[in-house]
Hints:
Strand content: 35-45%
Order of helices and strands: HEEEEEEEEEEEE
Shape: globular
Helix content: 10-25%
Number of strands: 12
Oligomer: single chain
Radius of gyration: 26 Å
Amino acid sequence: xxxxxxxxxxxxxxxxxxxxxxxxxxxxxxxxxxxxxxxxxxxxxxxxxxxxxxxxxxxxxxxxxxxxxxxxxxxxxxxxxxxxxxxxxxxxxxxxxxxxxxxxxxxxxxxxxxxxxxxxxxxxxxxxxxxxxxxx
Length: 136
């Protein structure tokens, strides 16, 4: 009888101890839906240096701006940037995103207007020129 009581108490104490152990909260998963990029910038690299890009509205259309310090902005000379795989992209005056796999000799329209940047996120620009992103 004592042996049964000891076993029952051991099981109860063990169960109570397990119930008190708290698990660390799980990390929030990366968003799988598109979210608006508030500052409208994304990062890339140019000649081995980190560079920030953003679309700047001018005279009803958009131009591509670049910055090497995320504060002083200039218009990119060729209005293009590279995606994570090194392909060349550009935003047209009618807000389409085009891609070139041969250094700009031939351009193809990206119907979904999205690309994968060096930070691993997918970015897209909508018809109004707003920048969106989600985890790839």
